[in-house]
Amino acid sequence: MSLADTVTVMAQRLQERLQECNGDEVLKAEAGAKVQKFTEWALKCIGFHSRSQGNRDQVSQSSSMEIQLQLSAFKIFLDLAGNNLTGKDLTEAFDAACFPLTLFSSSFDHVWASGISATAIQGLLGMLVEGGADNVNQCFLEASRFGSTELVRILLQIARRNSLDVDVDLALGFASHYGKIGTMECLVEEGNAMAFLGPLMRAAERGFMQVVQWFVKRGCRDMELCLALTAATSSSQVEVAAYVLPHVPRQVLEALSVEILKAAGERSGGSLDGVAFLLHSNFLGDPATTYNAANDIARSDEEAVAPELRAFLLEHWSEAAFSEGLKEGQEHYLNMVRILKWGESPICLRDLPESLRVAIAYLPLYRDCAKTRGCLLSQRLRGQLVEAARRLGNGAMEEASQGRELLAVLEHHLPPFLVHASNAPWDYP
Fold first, then answer.
1. What are the residue ranges in the chain where pLDDT is below 50?
2. d(C-alpha 328, C-alpha 308), whole Å
3. pTM for the structure as a whole
């Protein structure tokens, strides 16, 4: 962008920023005018650096001397002004110098952060802090929010040099909220930010996969991963939950399985898709253990269990749901027998090939089971499927049989073209 374009865009973003603030409109307008005046110097520094890139060898020495002279002149100005400049004035100047860099530094060549322009900015900001500017942390957080990694790095150096506290963990939260991965890396590697839990949970809750992946690859504690899984589950962020789940140690899941499901149900906001995902994916690694965890919550009378979660598990995932599924399967079979014997349809179902009769009877059930994402069926569907498998000549089928095995029985009796048209996802471990 040209300097003129930069100023135009900056003015637009300035108005957006001011609109977010509470306060008198007149004061906002005055603040806006002040900020735009103060930004010219910083923008000229960046523009000068961009122009000098093509002829660096010839101008580096003179430009460096020019910057030092400018900084010396500014220092003399501050000394002469003395008490005529208040801490508030210096704080406003510091904010004004940081503001354009906060918004635009990522739009320029990143080399500027280690060049003459950075020296100028760092010198200017350093003098303002020495003079009494007290908003380093505020500007640091703002730069982190906008992903101005170069300015974040400069402010970290100024804070260390002047023994100032900057909230690197809160800054990490801002940067992660807006997906500023480069700034996040700077805050962790150079700012020693260590508070991963809050940002990780919020990213999981919002389904921000890129940020979640970054935290996981950087290395998270077992409980941080477990809480991130709970956050993704409660918000029905299934893709994020599917990514985090394999990273949570099995022993942690086994120890906290009931609490994870209860917490996810309590914060679900009306959707239990995340809970269904965990159960369908057999998140405890053993079908019986996963079913038992769901059944324990369904039968629990604890007040901590959300009524919606209890009702959902009781209807679909409890032992009672399995019994109800068996009963529904039996009633369905009897209805089919009655139709075959006494039905008045002009099409005589008994004259159809057996595979078509099976399709008429059980294709809806097969499709319901086949579209399930995961390796476990709900207990209700499993009950219906067990009964169907028994009626199709596999009387020895045990109630402990699982989805794949049971579906294979139906597939064996269905016409092949219907089986291929209803392929199951079964894509979760």
1. 49, 56-62, 424, 426-429
2. 23
3. 0.76
Asked if 379 and 322 count as a contact pair (C-beta separation under 8 A), the reply is yes
Cα separations (Å) of 187 from 62, 129, 154? 34, 21, 12
Q: Tokens for 315, please give them.
A: 């209807």
Q: Sign of the CA dihedral 276, 280, 286, 289? A: positive
What single letter denotes the amino acid at residue 405? E
User: What is the full DSSP assignment across 273-294?
Assistant: HHHHHHHHTTTTSSHHHHHHHH
* C-alpha span between 118 and 112 (Å, rounded): 6
Q: In this predicted structure, what is the pLDDT of residue 422? A: 54
Burial of 192 (0-12, 13-18, 19+ CB in 10 A): exposed
Contact predicate 36/11, CB 8 Å: yes
CB atoms within 10 A of CB 106: 17
What pLDDT, on the 0 to 100 scale, is given for residue 169?
97
Pairwise CA distance, residues 304 & 259, whole Å: 10
Cα–Cα distances in angstroms (integers) from residue 314 to residues 48, 139, 296, 322, in the given order: 69, 53, 10, 10
Residue holding tokens 């700077």? 186
Query: What token pair was written down for 319?
Result: 């032992």
Q: Report pLDDT digits (tens) over 170-214.
A: 999 999 999 999 999 999 999 999 999 999 999 999 999 999 999
Per-domain boundaries in the chain: 3-195, 222-316, 319-420
Beta carbons within 8 Å of 252's beta carbon, 6+ residues apart: 222, 223, 225, 226
pLDDT at 59: 43
Q: How far apart are CA 157 and CA 40, in angstroms?
A: 24
Which amino acid is located at 336 in the chain?
Answer: M
> Tokens standing for 194?
């260590």
354: nearest Cα among 266, 304, 415: 415
138-to-27, 30, 145 alpha-carbon distances in Å: 20, 20, 11
Q: What pLDDT does residue 193 have? A: 95
| CA 377, 381, 386, 391 torsion-angle sign | negative
Closest CA to 231 of 194, 190, 278: 278
Specify the amino acid at residue 309: L
Q: Are 200 and 220 in contact (CB under 8 A)?
A: yes
Residues 6+ apart with CB under 8 A from 80: none
Tell me the helix, strand and coil percentages in the chain, rounded to 5: 75, 0, 25
